[in-house]
Each structure stands twice: as structure tokens, then as C-alpha cells.
Design goal:
Layout lengths: L1 H31 L5 H30 L10 H67 L6 H11 L1 H4 L6 E8 L3 H11 L7 E2 L8 E9 L1 H4 L5 E2 L4 H13 L3 E2 L14 E9 L8 H7 E10 H4 L11 E6 L9 E5 L7 H6 L5 E8 L2 E9 L1 H4 L7 H23 L1 H36 L3 E5 L5 E4 L1 H7 L21 H12 L4 E8 L5 E10 L12 E7 L1 H50 L8 H33 L7 E4 H18 L3 E6 L3 E2 L1 E4 L1 H17 L5 E9 L4 E8 L6 H6 L9 H7 L5 H11 L3 E7 L3 E9 L8 E2 L2 E7 L21 E5 L3 H13 L3 E5 L2 H8 L17 E5 L7 H10 L6 E5 L6 H8 L3 E4 L4 H9 L3 H8 L1
Parallel strand pairs: 2-4, 18-21, 27-28, 27-29, 29-30, 30-31
Antiparallel strand pairs: 1-3, 1-7, 5-6, 6-7, 8-9, 8-11, 10-11, 12-13, 12-16, 14-15, 15-16, 17-20, 18-26, 19-25, 21-22, 22-24, 23-24
Helix pairs in contact: 1-2, 2-3, 2-13, 3-13, 17-18, 17-24, 18-23, 19-20, 20-23, 25-26, 26-27
Length: about 1000
């Protein structure tokens, strides 16, 4: 019940306080912020209200907070409340007095400075207009000193004076002559003679009934004032009124606000007149001045330029407006200048200046009104604090002092509560620290990685059981003082030191290194390091916590997996290449076999001569044997790899086997124009225990490869016996292309030649050397190789020999066998009567001689004219004008269709087709390939081929593929 009454009383108090604060603020506001803009006035009103009501609100807030304290809290006593209220009330009173005093002083200071700046503006306006009077008086002196000022004299004077520059705001200066209406014609005649043929009198207004004209005779600079030259200023009211007033008064006279005819921008302007009188005649009265009058000198002036920059005299703290009248009327405004430019138009419209002033200025016989107002630049120059800042500062100071008094009064009670709270917190912190230490110790001892605590030099301070295992130590004491660097090879010191430095710098560090245990075990360690000491304070102990893991087995497994994957990828790629090459190697002889079989089987070819039939049969046999050899190589390799290859061990004469192989390989050697011979360099055993068939197979492969890869020169077989190793060595030396070290490393792998270009250039499966090496190993020997690029290669077969009697030897001989023959020539084929390709010209690119004869025979039989080349390079050269690969294509092309094998030496069919298409060839290109793998068709078409035919050759399909591009067939398709 007591609490409810207290709360009700507090609410009533606060409501009354708010109303009282608002009332007092409303009374003080005119004194504190007189004529302030609306927004600052509102801020000031709210600030005053908060300043007055704030102490009561704060006091009651403290009281309510005290009621919510626990039962142990002591109630607030008068010793605490009384000083608080005294300070609050005194501070509010002093702040209010200071605010009112500063507002009054600031207002007075502002008014004084505003009046001073306004006076400077007034003086500046008078000074600028007086400057024009000086110019007019000087010009009047020129006319009064001369009886007649000629046009040339007037121009010379103006060039010296330069009125536009000397009198800012003036567009020039001139002379006006009064001409009676009766003298108009005589004046025009004089003017055309003295002023210019194009001179004429122009009217400036609508006054036509006057007796005289006020004509502008001279005006300079003329190019800027040509519109005013010859103007009758007396034909317009304001101009005439000011001109007549200038005669009567003899003083400089301004017109009212007018639009100058020479000002194309239509700025506010006026004319400044000064009457010119005859020298020596009296001019004291208006009548005397009328009699002595000669004319006027004048200046056309734009008010914007004349008064431009006048606000600079007030340091841009005032806004200035000038009116040509005693009343302020927008239509009479001559000039408007603002010292402050608002970015927001709305802010400019709502701004109310603190001060403004209006005063008249007599200029040229007219009353100008100058209106001056202050702007935000002027407001910002106050040397006093703004009232709102005074209130804020006073309120803040009052609240601060009151809070200190309040805090000092209640410090004992809060100190007791704080001590009790700190005791509880310390106990809780101690319990948490003990629990954390136990938890860390458990983790440290049981974590499954080696954890070591090191100093910044890498010395061991502590380690867990797993760390002892890595160090191969029996106790922690054994490691105390030891450095981790002692167990690491020198090449790993830099990485470990860098990791420790990174940890000291506050970064998580990680590295790998080899570590040698105390018992000599070498391990690969992965280490993570973090700093656990305080490195920011001098003298603090810095420790590095490291976690080390043995990754020896992990890295070994990763390396093994990586190597296995690499081997698998290499094997997969090698076998894919082998399958592609094997397809070509098998289908190429099959093409010749099946094609020549078709020739022999046809009835209409019975008239072919016996010699030609035998050649067909020999071709079939030769290609069949080659195909059988390929199949045998594949089967032999399969047996060898499966471990099922067996060999005999029977007495074998080495010289006989070598002689047989030479006789077998002589045809290939002679066909290439190579010399093939054999020598016995040292005495060799006459008979050894060996398998003669496998020995012959090895030699056939070695000698066959030597012939294949040798273009010119010779192939030599050398036999010797090496007594230290008790082995027979048979070397096959050629003068061929040679090999690099990298090529020799790959040479004895299955399905591999030195590189893919070898396969395209020389053919072959890549099985021969692999089979030969494995057979040599099965026979108890080996094959080694030495080679030099461009010089040649030497393959050496070594066979171990058992005990040999002294009489069982063959003596050395220089020439075991030498064969040099010339390959036989072949006759051409006859043509058939059936000619579906009649009239077609076909260019055939094929490197196989048998296939060339067969395909040419079929095409010629069908009526085509066939020209053959051996590779893609010759094909492209045949199609160009200059016979080079880079030349332009012949137009028209030398053939109707190109038929090309896709696997050829020098340049294959893919590259040739692509090159022809790049040159712009549009003739049909038919692809001919022995590859039968998936994707071959797309590969040929992507290269630019028009059609596709496979080997072995099917005559009908071949002819059909070519016939599609017969000019007659294509013409029919077009129609």
C-alpha cells in the first residue's frame, strides 16, 4: 500500500514538473533565442524544458531504483539526497542565467558587426557609381576643350581610356547631339559624310511628336554598341527625361531602369548622362545652361556588372538587393547578390535572417534603395557559444557534479556490495581455473598425438607420452633442456625455426620435417605450433605449444597411390595409342590381301598375264606374312606377360643363325638401298646351348628395326665373345636417326616406340623390342642400347655361355655376309571397260605402294584419271600454284576429288585436309583410313573431309564414295 502511494505521488510530481518546465521555457525563449529560425527555436525550447525538468526526473529515477534493491540495501538518507538536490537546482539556475546573459551579449555583438558591414556595402555602392562620374567628366572635358571632336579623335581617346575595362559595368561611352527636326536632313548629310554612309537615325521608343532628336553620334567600342549608334534616346520616356534633367542640373544623371538595345542578354541597365556646355558661357541657372548646351556624354551601364562582387565588401556575410525606387518592388530590382548559397532550395526558402536593414542611396539624381540582410555565414561568426550549447554544457556539468555527489554519498553501501560480489567472482574464477587445469592435463596426457611445450629457442620444457614415443625417450627428464633442432637434419632447421617464429608472432604455424629419434628411427613429422605465453609484456615467459604427428606411413601411402595412378594413366594412354596403331598395322596389309584377291577372282581378268598374276599372289603372300608376324608378336607378348613362354636349350650355331637372318632381311635392305653385312670380331663359340627359333626372332626384330629406321648408309652385325663375363655378344649397328636419352628409356616398354611421330613415319606396333628384350632375359641374357641423335644406334644382345672346350671356336672374319641388290620393278595394271567415274580427275595420297596400285587400279578401271602422291605434304604442294605448302591454291584445282589416307609420313591426311580448307579449298576430300576406332568419322569430318572410307578397301563402296562427287552427279543434285 505504501509503495502504491509512493508511485502515485511520483507520477503526479513528474506531470507537474513537465508542465512547469514547459511554461518557464516559453517565458525564457524570447530572451534566449530572439528571431531564431523555426527549427533552432524548437530545439532551444526542448533543451530548456529538459534542463528544467531533468533534475527532478533523475532524482525520482534514483529513488525508484533504490526501491528495487535487495533487502540488504540501505535506504537513501538525507545526507545523500540533500546535496544532490542543492547541486541540481543550483546548476539549473546558473545555467539559465548564463544562457540568458550570453544570448543578450551575442545579440548586441551581432548588431554592431552587422551595422559595420552594412555601412561598408553602402560606401561601396556609392564608390562604384562615382567611378562612372569620373569617366563622364573626363569625356566632357575632351568635348569642351575642342570645337568639334572628330570620329577619329573620339576613337583614339576611347582606345586610351578603354571604358569597358576602366569602368566595370559600362558597355562603352559615347556622345549624344541634339538635332532640331528642321535640321534633320542637313544633319544626316553631315553624318553620312563624317560618321559613315550607313549612319541613320533610329527610334528607341514611341515618342514621335517631339521637336528635336537626341541622336547618339559617337559610341565606342562600336562593335559592341552598333545597335545604339544613331539611336534617338529622346524617343523613349525614361531616356528623354534623364537627358533633359542633365541639361537643367548640369550634374551626372541616371535614367530609370531600362533595357539597353546593345545588351542582347537583356540585363537590368541604365544610361548615365552628363551635359556638355560651351566654354566661356555662363551656366549658373537652368536657362543659362540651356543656352550653353552642346550635347551629352553618356555611358550605357548594366547594373549586374556594375554591382557585381559588391558582397565581397561584407566578406560574403550579407545578402544585398538594390532597387531603383523609394519602394521595394520586384519590377524595380537592379541587383541581387547572395553571400551564402544554399544547396537545398527548401532550406533557402525557410531561412530567416537575424538582421536586415534598408537605406536610400542618392545616385545620379535618383533614389536607390539598398536592402541588406544577414546570412548563415554571418550567423557562424559569433564569438559566443550558441544558447543550445550553453544549455547542453551547463546541464551536462550539473548532472556530472550531481552524479559525483550522489556516488560519493552512496559509496560505502556500494563498496560493501562490490566486495561481496568480487569474493563470489574470485571463488568462481578459482574453481573454473582448477577445472580447466584438470581438463588440460587430461587432454595433454591422453591426446593421440605428440604434444610438446617448447621455449622460443626450441628447447623442450614438457611433453606427453606420445611425444616421448616420437623422441624415443624413456622419460621427460631425458628431454629437459634438449632442443628439437638436435633431432632434425640441418636441411630442416630453417623450416622449423620459421614455424616457431610465426607462432611467437601470434600466427598458427604448420610445417613438415624429418626427425631422427634417440634410437636412430627416421620419421616424417607434421607439426602445428601456437604461442601460449604473453609476448607483449617485457619479461613475460613465452612458451610454444606444438602438436606433432608421425605421417611417415601416410606420405608413403600417398606417394604409392600417386605413382600407381600415374602408372595406370600411362598404361591406359599407351594401350589406347597401341590399339589405334594396331588397327592401322592390321588393316593396311588386309587391304592389299583382300583387294588383290578380288582382282584374281573376277572372270573378266582372266586375260591378265601370268607375270601380273604372280605379282598379285606375291603381294597377297607378303602382306599375309606381315599380318601373321603382327599376330604372332601379339601372341608372344601375351605369353611372355602371362609367364607361359617356354624356350628350348639345344646346340645352336651362332654363325648359322646370323647368316639365315641376313638372307631373310636382304630384300628389305636392298629395297632401301642399304648395305647389310656381318663380321666376327673375336673368336666365338661354335655351338652354344640356346633356342635357335627365339634367337632368330630376336635378331630379325633387331635387324628389321635397324633397316626400318635407317634411310641411307648401312646396317652391320658384329659378333664377339666377352671373356670376363663369359657371354656371346651380337651387336646390330645402324646409321639411322638415333635417339635421345628420354626415348631410350621408353624404348623397351610394351606398345611404345620412341614417340608417336615414329609410328606415323615408319609404322610398326611397338611390340618387337619389348618381346626381344623379354626373350633375351628368358634365354639368360639381356639387350642394351647406345645411341646418338643423327648418328645412329647400336643394340647389343648378350647371351651367357657355359663351359666351352678349347677346340670349339670360330675364328674372326671380316665379312660373314654382304648383300647388295636392286629391287625389282613392277608393271602397271590394265583398265576395265566399266567406267562410272569417266572424266573424273582424282588425286590419291597414299604411302603404301600395294594400296596405291590397288586403289589406282579400281579407280582407273572405273574411268577416272588418277594421279598419286606419297604423303600429305606432297598433296598440298600439288594443289598450290608455286608447288609449296604455303602457296596459294590453283584455280581451277588440278583434280575433281582428293582421296587421301589419314595415316601417312611427313604430313598425315588430317593436317593436309585442314590446311587445304584453311586455304579456301572447296573441292571434295574423301578420307581413307585403316583406323576403325569409334570417333574416327567425326575426327575426319572435323578436319575438313567430305566423306569417309575404311580399309580394307571395298571396291564398290570406294567407287560409290567417289562417284557422289562426279560433276554430272553434283549437277543433277543441284537441279
Amino acid at each position: 500500500m505504501h509503495s502504491s502511494k509512493f508511485l502515485f505521488r511520483v507520477v503526479v510530481e513528474l506531470i507537474l514538473t513537465v508542465f512547469l518546465a514547459l511554461f518557464v521555457s516559453n517565458l525564457l525563449l524570447p530572451l534566449v533565442a530572439p528571431r531564431f529560425p523555426e527549427a533552432p527555436t524548437r530545439i532551444m525550447f526542448v533543451s530548456l524544458a529538459l534542463l528544467l525538468a531533468g533534475p527532478v526526473f533523475i532524482y525520482r529515477a534514483f529513488m525508484l531504483w533504490s526501491l528495487r534493491e535487495s533487502s540488504r540495501a540501505q535506504p537513501m538518507t538525507s545526507d545523500v539526497v540533500r546535496p544532490f538536490l542543492v547541486v541540481m537546482c543550483g546548476g539549473v539556475l546558473l545555467t539559465a542565467i548564463a544562457t540568458i546573459w550570453m544570448a543578450i551579449e551575442s545579440r548586441s555583438d551581432f548588431e554592431m558587426r552587422f551595422d559595420a558591414l552594412a555601412e561598408r556595402v553602402k560606401v561601396e555602392v556609392a564608390r562604384r557609381m562615382a567611378n562612372f562620374e569620373y569617366g563622364l567628366k573626363a569625356l566632357r572635358g575632351l568635348h569642351e576643350a575642342s570645337e568639334e571632336v572628330s570620329l577619329a579623335e573620339f576613337r583614339d581617346y576611347c582606345e586610351v581610356v578603354d571604358p569597358v575595362v576602366s569602368f566595370p559595368g559600362a558597355m562603352g561611352q559615347g556622345f549624344i547631339r541634339r538635332v532640331q527636326r528642321s535640321e534633320r536632313d542637313a544633319f544626316l548629310a553631315w553624318a553620312k559624310e563624317n560618321l559613315g554612309e550607313d549612319f541613320k537615325i533610329k527610334s528607341a521608343g514611341n515618342i514621335d511628336d517631339h521637336d528635336d532628336f537626341y541622336v547618339i553620334c559617337h559610341t565606342e567600342p562600336l562593335e559592341n554598341n552598333r545597335a545604339a549608334w544613331g539611336l534617338d534616346v529622346g524617343s523613349e520616356g525614361h531616356r528623354r527625361e534623364a537627358a533633359e534633367k542633365a541639361i537643367a542640373t548640369g550634374l551626372p544623371t541616371l535614367t530609370a531602369k531600362i533595357n539597353l538595345v546593345q545588351d542582347q542578354l537583356n540585363h537590368n541597365g541604365f544610361l548615365y548622362y552628363l551635359a556638355v556646355y560651351q566654354i566661356g558661357m555662363p551656366r549658373s541657372t537652368p536657362q543659362e545652361r540651356e543656352k550653353a548646351f552642346l550635347g551629352w556624354v553618356y555611358m550605357p551601364i548594366t547594373s549586374e556588372r556594375a554591382l557585381e562582387g559588391i558582397i565581397q565588401s561584407s566578406d560574403e556575410m550579407l545578402d544585398v538587393e538594390v532597387y531603383d525606387d523609394v519602394a521595394i518592388d520586384p519590377s524595380a530590382k537592379l541587383f541581387c547578390g547572395h553571400g551564402y548559397h544554399f544547396q537545398d532550395p527548401n532550406a533557402q526558402a525557410s531561412y530567416q535572417p537575424q538582421f536586415n536593414k534598408t537605406f536610400p542611396v542618392q545616385v545620379g539624381g535618383r533614389n536607390w534603395i539598398v536592402q541588406i540582410a544577414s546570412n548563415p555565414n554571418f550567423d557562424a561568426t559569433s564569438s559566443f557559444l550558441p544558447p543550445e550549447l550553453t544549455i547542453a554544457f551547463g546541464g551536462l556539468l550539473t548532472f556530472t557534479v550531481a552524479a559525483v555527489i550522489w556516488n560519493m554519498g552512496s559509496s560505502r553501501r556500494r563498496a560493501i556490495e562490490l566486495a561481496e560480489s568480487m569474493t563470489v567472482d574470485l571463488k568462481k574464477a578459482k574453481d573454473d581455473a582448477e577445472e580447466s587445469a584438470h581438463r588440460f592435463t587430461a587432454i595433454f596426457l591422453n591426446v593421440p598425438v605428440g604434444v610438446a611445450l617448447l621455449d622460443t629457442e626450441g628447447r623442450v620444457l614438457n611433453t606427453n607420452p606420445e611425444g616421448l614415443k616420437l623422441w624415443e625417450a624413456y622419460s621427460r627428464r631425458q628431454l629437459w633442456g634438449c632442443s628439437i633442432l638436435d633431432q632434425i637434419p640441418e636441411d630442416g632447421h630453417a623450416a622449423v625455426k620459421e614455424a616457431l617464429n610465426e607462432a611467437v608472432e601470434g600466427r598458427d604455424a604448420q610445417t613438415e620435417f624429418q626427425m631422427v629419434g634417440l634410437r636412430g628411427t627416421v620419421r616424417l613429422i607434421e607439426m602445428h605450433a601456437v604461442v601460449v605465453g604473453n609476448v607483449k609484456h617485457e619479461g613475460a615467459t613465452t612458451q610454444i605449444l606444438t602438436a606433432m604427428r608421425d605421417i611417415t606411413n601416410q606420405r608413403r601411402t600417398e606417394n604409392e597411390l600417386r605413382e600407381a595412378r600415374s602408372r595406370a594413366e600411362t598404361a591406359s594412354q599407351t594401350k589406347s595409342e597401341f590399339l589405334a596403331n594396331m588397327s592401322h598395322e592390321i588393316r593396311t596389309p588386309m587391304t592389299a590381301i583382300l583387294g588383290y584377291t578380288d582382282l584374281l577372282a573376277e572372270e573378266q581378268h582372266r586375260e591378265v598375264s601370268l607375270e601380273d598374276r604372280l605379282e598379285y599372289i606375291n603381294t597377297i603372300r607378303r602382306n599375309g606374312e606381315h599380318l601373321l608376324m603382327i599376330i604372332n608378336d601379339i601372341l608372344d607378348l601375351s605369353k611372355i606377360e602371362a609367364g607361359k613362354m617356354t624356350v628350348e636349350s639345344v646346340p645352336t650355331r651362332i654363325d648359322s643363325v646370323v647368316r639365315e637372318v641376313l638372307e631373310l632381311m636382304q630384300v628389305k635392305a636392298v629395297a632401301k638401298g642399304l648395305a647389310l653385312d656381318a663380321t666376327i670380331e673375336t673368336k666365338i663359340p661354335k655351338v652354344i646351348a640356346c633356342d635357335p627359333i627365339r634367337l632368330r626372332q630376336i635378331l630379325v626384330n633387331l635387324i628389321g628395326n635397324a633397316i626400318k629406321f635407317t634411310e641411307i648408309g648401312r646396317v652391320r652385325v658384329q659378333c664377339r665373345y666377352d671373356f670376363p663375363t663369359k657371354s656371346v655378344q651380337i651387336s646390330v649397328e645402324d646409321s639411322g636417326i638415333g635417339m635421345t636419352e628420354m626415348q631410350m628409356e621408353r624404348l623397351f616398354q610394351a606398345f611404345v616406340q620412341a614417340d608417336n611421330s615414329m609410328t606415323r613415319r615408319f609404322g610398326g606396333t611397338g611390340l618387337g623390342l619389348r618381346i626381344s628384350k623379354r626373350l633375351a632375359e628368358i634365354l639368360g641374357g639381356d639387350i642394351t642400347i647406345t645411341s646418338e641423335v643423327g648418328i645412329g644406334s647400336t643394340f647389343c644382345l648378350s647371351l651367357m655361355v657355359d663351359h666351352i672346350s678349347d677346340s670349339n671356336w670360330i675364328e674372326p672374319t671380316e665379312h660373314l655376309e654382304t648383300i647388295e641388290k636392286t629391287p625389282a620393278s613392277h608393271k602397271g595394271m590394265s583398265k576395265s571397260d566399266k567406267k562410272p567415274l569417266n572424266g573424273m580427275k582424282i588425286l590419291l595420297a597414299e604411302d603404301g605402294p600395294d594400296n596405291v596400285r590397288l586403289i589406282s587400279f579400281h579407280l582407273r578401271k572405273a574411268g577416272a584419271e588418277v594421279e598419286t602422291v606419297e604423303n600429305g605434304k606432297l598433296l598440298v604442294e600439288r594443289m598450290t600454284v608455286d608447288g609449296t605448302v604455303h602457296g596459294q591454291l590453283k584455280d581451277p584445282p588440278p583434280c575433281d576429288v582428293v582421296l587421301t589416307d589419314m595415316q601417312m609420313p611427313e604430313m598425315d591426311g588430317y593436317e593436309a585436309a585442314r590446311l587445304l580448307r584453311d586455304k579456301g579449298a572447296t573441292l571434295p576430300i574423301v578420307a581413307l583410313t585403316a583406323h576403325a576406332m569409334s570417333g574416327d568419322l567425326k575426327k575426319c569430318l572435323d578436319a575438313g573431309c567430305s566423306a569417309y572410307a575404311t580399309k580394307p578397301i571395298d571396291r564398290d563402296r570406294l567407287i560409290h564414295s567417289v562417284q557422289r562427287f562426279h560433276p554430272d552427279a553434283m549437277a543433277s543434285a543441284t537441279i
